[in-house]
Amino acid sequence: xxxxxxxxxxxxxxxxxxxxxxxxxxxxxxxxxxxxxxxxxxxxxxxxxxxxxxxxxxxxxxxxxxxxxxxxxxxxxxxxxxxxxxxxxxxxxxxxxxxxxxxxxxxxxxxxxxxxxxxxxxxxxxxxxxxxxxxxxxxxxxxxxxxxxxxxxxxxxxxxxxxxxxxxxxxxxxxxxxxxxxxxxxxxxxxxxxxxxxxxxxxxxxxxxxxxxxxxxxxxxxxxxxxxxxxxxxxxxxxxxxxxxxxxxxxxxxxxxxxxxxxxxxxxxxxxxxxxxxxxxxxxxxxxxxxxxxxxxxxxxxxxxxxxxxxxxxxxxxxxxxxxxxxxxxxxxxxxxxxxxxxxxxxxxxxxxxxxxxxxxxxxxxxxxxxxxxxxxxxxxxxxxxxxxxxxxxxxxxxxxxxxxxxxxxxxxxxxxxxxxxxxxxxxxxxxxxxxxxxxxxxxxxxxxxxxxxxxxxxxxxxxxxxxxxxxxxxxxxxxxxxxxxxxxxxxxxxxxxxxxxxxxxxxxxxxxxxxxxxxxxxxxxxxxxxxxxxxxxxxxxxxxxxxxxxxxxxxxxxxxxxxxxxxxxxxxxxxxxxxxxxxxxxxxxxxxxxxxxxxxxxxxxxxxxxxxxxxxxxxxxxxxxxxxxxxxxxxxxxxxxxxxxxxxxxxxxxxxxxxxxxxxxxxxxxxxxxxxxxxxxxxxxxxxxxxxxxxxxxxxxxxxxxxxxxxxxxxxxxxxxxxxxxxxx
Length: 730
Fold this sequence. Notes:
alpha/beta, disordered N terminus, potassium ion transmembrane transporter activity, K_trans_C
């Protein structure tokens, strides 16, 4: 369970509990975790056999692909078509076919899924992967500090030299900040996607009831859609597995029925539709329509909406299951469905405003309406799950205020649910429908989100190819030119829609970015103060040697946030209480820049050189959960301490009496009582502070006072908790 490091009586900083010359946790964790992955991870997530993978692939239909496979509901209605011709429709279908093939199949299914960070996907996972391998160390001051003694060669196993681009990022603070901004923007856009996908999917599906019942107005459709969305969000607490198992049959029916209708439409209206696969129809389309054709890209880009969930939801499933489901069901279904829609519209060119329901044969209209409504509900699930994943990643990496994260599966670490985030998403989704009920406005906003997230993923993947995979230059150039060029054109088209609803995701992203920046700025200032005023062992010795300071009975877990020394709260505590427990364990909860930490690497123990004082670092990756609870946590740490002391006896057998005394002191302290002490610090903003510091630190204090504490995650009993207040001067 624990990893002991060499004991010595010299004064050491707490960071040396984790990072010393003869102990590089990142380098060793990389190799040890790889072995752990090959047994534990492959067993749990890759499926024990072929049927297990197929079952998992079936479940992905209900979570991962909902937004993507239901896009035919709103793609054509979102396009501002004016008197379209047969050639126009053939060009539009050609654009959608190649968008699905290149971005969906090549970029996401074949390339992006291989860039997972040991099971986790999404833009923040890509950023974390780059940080670990480039040794950028910008995720937060505490991570940057703790990474300082780990070299890139250790991260890469010592076999490869750092690339020139990697060295550039290490040298340039501006480049690192730009990379951080790109990752934050991508995360904010995915959250925006989690708001807009449910809104546009459900609204587009429910709108189909107006065709057979003209008396139903738009207000009633919006009310029904809002009610359906509320029910969807209330179901989230049951977890991804239960929801996906419930939703997957619905998506299976949708994925089967819509291409069958598409095949019927192709045969009945335009059998030669697949000639549009030829790219020359794209060139003819733009040569005929010019600027109008370019503006229509804001609607065609929606055919690939939800593709980011394919990558972001990777932690909920695995690569093989997602690839099987996409390549053998989702992709063929979309190609045939869009072909059927286009074939119908070629013969009925003015029905594009209701391009989905109009091409459904009358005899099966109501069954398809029911399935499409249920499928739209499922579509909401894919981006909601992805939003939970990216929020959790940013919380544990200290870039977002702490919110409650519930693990809804005992076997899959990636399945998470956040009550606060869930209800905020619910309110925003309902607000988008009630305020911006026009499907075209929401579609414009959706296009901005889809194109920007795709572009950001392309940029980060290019960096991964160059700095980590060491892909040949020609292949990287081909990848970048094709996808950056294609997605750049899409972005340029959707940006013209900002005044027409496209501002919605920017407003959401700005609010989220402001929250993230305010939180990060406050955390950075707090860490800077603690590093400046840290308590070293050289300062601790005279404090404890003072005759007025007593060593009281009991076992104390004193929580410290920094690893390069001890928290200033310790000095404040000793000076005012004139005491310290006989056995004190300075405990740090530390998130490493890897998704998961092997159980035997979880607890790291170090003797600090003063009697009864120990350092303990509990290490977690961003995909791990804190599963140490109450007395179980105390038992695990004390057992690790006893094992460490016993190992010291084996190393230094000449002093068994002192070792036995340490063991007796620990057992007596545990019997006398356990207390958990943490600092509750606030900023004191003096008159010398500028307006920027006053504003940002005041905002941080608001966030900090309303977010959750990290200590309850260990399930420490209330009767054993103690908080020591202290003001940090800004």
